[in-house]
Amino acid sequence: MISLLSVTSSFAALKVELFEIEGLISPASPKALTTELESRLKVKVLDLNLKRSASGWPVLSIEFDSAQITRKTIEQTIATIEDPAGHKYRVHTGPPMNNAPYTEEENKAIAMLGPAAPDIAVLTNPVDASNDSLGRGKKMFEKYCTTCHGLDGSGHGPAAHGITTFPRQLWVWNNSDSSADGYLFWFITNGRNEMPPWGLILSENDRWDLINYIKTLTKQE
How far is CA 109 from CA 49, 88, 176, in A? Predict the structure, then answer.
């Protein structure tokens, strides 16, 4: 017969902790991680927040018996799991990772020290940054951009660590003036490194709406 005290102690040992996860780089990654983690340890995955976490990192919520399993054990187990493509995961710790150095072109554009690079046309956004435009841009940003750049434009999207050139921090363009328009339009249209050429998918107006929204992103402290 199980005593009331033992049942109470069992419930008291249950604990929920959050783990920021690196290495979610494919659509199969989240399911592979949660399934394997639950099968190896006596834990319950409550949620995997891929986009709307405060830090910008994907956050895994895990319930476990703290009398039997430690946080360190969970972290070590996560580090041994591979997704179907052979990529390993790990728990993110410490301050945000710095991005790769900006190119000379990007530094010039960010600082607004002069005209755009010679191979990038000087353009002015023809679409007014109205609430309608910002709403359309936000939907496109969440659909196409957050996987790499993160919901807040920090560069810490769930796929960021599978990319050779770390995604840029888009909040640097907050409230930038029209001198940035041609630069942003060129990169969104043509892509660069692992960034795809979105001009093949998004119409010109879509890209201008997206630029309007990018200019509203702010750095998260």
Answer: 33, 36, 10
In a domain, 99, yes or no: no
Give residue 151's identity as a one-letter amino acid code. L
Q: Which range among 10-14, 55-59, 97-101, 138-142 shows the weakest confidence by mean pLDDT?
A: 97-101
Over the range 81-90, which residues count as b (16 or more CB within 10 Å of their CB) and which as e? bebeeebebb
Show the domain range for 168: 104-214
Strand partners, 15: 64
Q: Which residue has the tokens 């072109």?
A: 105
Owner of token pair 């360190």? 72
Note the pTM of the prediction, 2 decimals.
0.54
221 part of a folded domain: no
14-32 pLDDT, tens digit each:
999 999 887 776 667 788 8
